[in-house]
Amino acid sequence: MLVSRFILIVLLGLAVCHAAWGQARQPAAQPLTREAIKARYLIYFGGYITWPPHAVPDPKTTFEIGILGVDPFGDHLQVFAGQKVGGRRIVIHQFDTMDQYVPCHLVFISGDNMAGQKETARKRLQDAVDQLAKKPVLIVSETPGFASQKGAVINFVDNVQQKQIQMDISRGAVLRTALQIDPGIWNLPVVNRLP
């Protein structure tokens, strides 16, 4: 009994030393950028929002994300392509204008402008809202005021003072789209409820 206890202690000590040594060899984790945080939120929305079955052509097997305008995420979002959320494979589309739109669960309206592009984020959002009115599409933007005044369901807000990304969520826009949002999302400290 004493020998087995001694062996257990030695093995436990070796495991702790191995874990500590392994962590010491790991490079320090880099802080997440604003783009990386926003990209992760887009993916998380796939698990907290329920879309009607007719939202996209293949609703049971894919989770379709569209980026309208410049893709500000780069690899931060592309790394999720092909992975699964809610049992569905993530597919990412990028289109410059709504003329190129393919059915998506979620459309992110980029606040950035392409070089030489005349279309602004405000114009892209208006085109998206006009085309997707009353359709079950989660419109997400990153331009101030878009959720409260322009029709986006969720708007990312950079809170520089608190060093965090917050979200404005428009209840009216949620009702217009017939999406069902998990009640837990309203309780997140980074969510601002809008009418």
Explain briefly what this protein structure is.
This protein has 195 residues and is α/β, with parallel strands linked by helices. The chain has helices at residues 2-25, 34-48, 75-78, 121-132, 146-150, 171-177; strands at 49-50, 62-68, 84-85, 88-95, 106-109, 138-141, 154-159, 164-170, 180-181, 191-194. It has a single domain, classed as 3-Layer(aba) Sandwich (Rossmann fold), CATH 3.40.50.
What is the topology?
Elements: H1 2-25, H2 34-48, E1 49-50, E2 62-68, H3 75-78, E3 84-85, E4 88-95, E5 106-109, H4 121-132, E6 138-141, H5 146-150, E7 154-159, E8 164-170, H6 171-177, E9 180-181, E10 191-194
Parallel strand pairs: 2-4, 2-5, 5-6, 6-7, 8-10
Antiparallel strand pairs: 1-9, 3-4, 7-8
Describe this structure in words.
It is built from six helices and ten strands; from the N terminus they run H-H-E-E-H-E-E-E-H-E-H-E-E-H-E-E. An eight-stranded mixed sheet has the order 3-4-2-5-6-7-8-10, sandwiched between helices. The chain has one domain (34-194): Rossmann fold, CATH 3.40.50. It has helices spanning 2-25, 34-48, 75-78, 121-132, 146-150, 171-177, and strands at residues 49-50, 62-68, 84-85, 88-95, 106-109, 138-141, 154-159, 164-170, 180-181, 191-194. The protein is globular and about 40 Å long. 34% of the residues lie in helices and 24% in strands.
Give average pLDDT, whole number. 77
For the termini, the CA-CA separation is 67 Å
What count of helical segments does DSSP give? 6
- CATH fold annotation: Rossmann fold
Give the helices and strands as they follow along the chain. Answer: HHEEHEEEHEHEEHEE
Strands of the widest sheet, in order across it, are 3-4-2-5-6-7-8-10
Structural class: alpha/beta
Strand content: 15-25%
Helix content: 25-40%
CATH architectural label:
3-Layer(aba) Sandwich
Global morphology: globular
Low-confidence stretches: 1-27
Largest sheet: 8 strands, mixed
Number of strands: 10
